[in-house]
C-alpha cells in the first residue's frame, strides 16, 4: 500500500500539537485512485497534484473534522478491472472516502464496489452520464457530464460549420465511442448530417490512412473524442500529409501532452472543456500558490483540488468524517470551493457552470469566444 503522509504543522489555535510533540494526531485516510500508467497518465498527474495541494492546505487549516488527512494513492491505469481491485483494496483497508477515479470506465466499475460498501467516491474527471444517472447515493463528481459536452459540441458544429463537410471519428474506446455517438445524435437532431462517421484503430499506419481518407473525401471539420496522445499524433500526421481540417476535440486533450505531440499543428484546434477555474476569483489564491511552486494549474489540476476540498468542506460542516454523514451533507448543502459556490444534486452531479469552448494556440488553450 502506497500511503503519502501529508502530516503537516497545524496551527496551535486549532488545538493540535506541533509535529514531534507527545500527543498523537488523529488521522483520516482518503483513498486516491488515478492512472499512473497507461494513456491517461498526464491527466492523472494533474488530478493528483490538485489533490495533494488540497490535502496540504486542509491540514494546515486543521484537517478534516480535526483529523489529519493521509492519502493512500493507488494506480488504476484507467482499467476497469484494476479500478475494481483498487476499490476492493480501499474497502478492505476501511477507507471510507475516495477521490477518483479519472476515466469513466474505471469510475463506473469501482463505484459499484463503493456504493455497496457505503464508501464516498468523488471524481474530478469522469464525465460519463451513466456514472451518476444510476443514482448511487455516495457517488459524486465535480466535473461535467459527457452528454452536456456532446450537446455543446453539436451546437458549436451547427453554428460555426453548418455548410462544411463534418466527419465524426472514434477509436473504439468506450469514451471516444460514446462521445461520437452522442455528438452525432445531437447534431442530427439539429438537422445536420455528418459527411462521414468513421471508427479506426490508432497506429501510425492507420492514422496516415485515415488522414488520406478524410482528405480524399474533402472533409473540412473533424470531431474526435480521443485522448491527448492519440489526437496529438493524428493531428500531426495529418498536417504532415497536407491535410489540415478544423480539428475539434474534447476534455481528453486538456493537457500539454497534446500540444507537445501535435506540435505547431495544434494551433487552432478547438476543444470542449469545463469552465477553467484557474481564471476565476475563487481559485486565485490556490492558483498563485501553484505558480509559486512552479506548477501550471491548468487542465484537471484545480478539479482535483476541488474534489478533495468538497469532502473536507462537508466533513467540517457536519463535524464528522464518516462517509454516510459526508454523503448526506454533500447532497444537502452548498460549499465555497475553488469552483465557486456549488452544491450537488440528487444524482451527485455538481451544480457548477458546464462546458465551454477553448482553442489551442502556441502550446496553451484559451477560451475561444463566440
Automatic annotation (TrEMBL):
InterPro entries registered for this protein in UniProt: Leu-bd, Leu_Ile_Val-bd, Peripla_BP_I
SUPFAM superfamilies assigned to the protein according to its UniProt record, in alphabetical order: Periplasmic binding protein-like I
Assigned keywords, A-Z: Amino-acid transport, Signal, Transport
Domain (Leucine-binding protein): residue spans on this chain: 28-363
BP GO terms, sorted: amino acid transport
Keyword Transport carried by entry: yes
Signal peptide location: 1-26
Coiled coil: none
Family designation: Belongs to the leucine-binding protein family.
Name under which the protein is recorded: Branched chain amino acid ABC transporter substrate-binding protein
Amino acid at each position: 500500500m502506497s500511503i503519502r503522509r501529508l502530516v503537516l504543522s497545524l496551527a496551535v489555535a486549532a488545538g493540535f500539537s506541533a509535529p514531534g510533540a507527545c500527543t498523537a494526531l488523529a488521522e483520516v485516510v482518503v483513498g486516491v485512485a488515478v492512472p499512473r500508467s497507461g494513456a491517461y497518465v498526464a491527466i492523472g498527474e494533474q488530478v493528483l497534484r490538485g489533490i495533494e495541494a488540497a490535502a496540504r492546505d486542509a491540514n494546515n487549516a486543521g484537517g478534516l473534522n480535526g483529523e489529519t488527512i493521509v492519502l493512500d494513492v493507488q494506480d488504476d491505469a484507467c482499467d476497469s478491472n484494476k479500478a475494481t481491485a483498487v476499490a476492493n483494496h480501499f474497502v478492505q483497508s476501511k477507507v471510507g472516502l475516495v477521490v477518483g477515479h479519472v476515466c469513466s470506465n474505471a469510475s463506473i466499475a469501482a463505484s459499484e464496489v463503493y456504493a455497496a460498501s457505503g464508501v464516498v467516491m468523488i471524481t474530478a474527471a469522469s464525465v460519463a452520464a451513466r456514472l451518476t444517472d444510476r443514482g448511487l447515493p455516495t457517488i459524486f463528481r465535480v466535473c461535467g457530464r459527457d452528454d452536456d459536452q456532446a450537446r455543446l459540441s453539436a451546437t458549436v458544429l451547427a453554428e460555426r460549420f453548418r455548410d462544411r463537410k463534418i466527419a465524426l471519428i472514434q477509436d473504439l474506446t468506450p469514451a471516444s465511442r460514446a462521445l461520437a455517438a452522442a455528438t452525432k445524435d445531437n447534431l442530427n437532431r439539429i438537422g445536420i448530417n455528418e459527411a462521414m462517421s468513421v471508427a479506426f484503430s490508432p497506429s501510425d499506419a492507420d492514422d496516415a490512412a485515415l488522414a488520406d481518407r478524410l482528405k480524399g473525401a474533402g472533409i473540412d471539420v473533424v470531431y474526435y473524442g480521443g485522448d491527448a496522445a492519440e489526437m496529438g499524433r493524428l493531428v500531426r500526421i495529418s498536417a504532415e500529409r497536407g491535410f489540415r481540417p478544423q480539428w475539434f476535440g474534447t476534455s481528453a486533450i486538456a493537457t500539454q501532452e497534446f500540444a507537445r505531440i501535435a506540435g505547431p499543428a495544434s494551433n487552432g484546434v478547438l476543444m470542449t472543456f469545463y469552465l477553467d477555474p484557474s481564471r476565476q476569483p475563487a481559485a486565485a489564491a490556490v492558483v498563485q500558490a501553484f505558480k509559486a511552486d512552479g506548477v501550471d494549474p491548468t487542465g484537471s489540476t484545480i478539479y482535483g483540488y476541488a474534489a478533495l476540498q468538497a469532502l473536507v468542506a462537508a466533513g467540517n460542516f457536519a463535524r464528522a468524517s464518516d462517509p454516510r454523514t459526508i454523503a448526506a451533507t454533500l447532497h444537502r448543502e452548498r460549499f465555497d470551493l475553488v469552483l465557486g459556490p456549488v452544491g450537488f444534486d440528487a444524482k451527485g452531479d455538481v451544480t457548477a457552470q458546464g462546458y465551454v469552448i477553448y482553442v489551442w494556440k502556441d502550446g496553451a488553450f484559451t477560451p475561444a469566444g463566440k
